[in-house]
Fold this protein.
Amino acid sequence: MLLIRFLIITVCVLWLIRTLARIFLPMLFQSMVNKATQQHNQPYQQQPPRQAEGKVKVDFVPPGPKNTIPDNEGDFVDYEEVK
C-alpha cells in the first residue's frame, strides 16, 4: 500500500512540474529574448571621444625587457649567410 501511495504522489508531482514548466518556461525565454534585444538595439552609452585624424595618443608603454636572451639559452653568435 505504501508503494502505491508513493508512486501516485510521484506521478502527480512530476505531472505538476511538467505542466508548470510548459506554462512558465516560454514566458521566461521570451523575457530573456526581449531583454537581449533591447540591449543590442541601444546605442553604446560611453563612446570614447574622437581624436583628430593623424594624432596618436599612447596611454601606457610597457617596460621593455633589458636582456632579450634569457641566461639559460646560452650565447648567441651572429653569422652571415653564404650563398
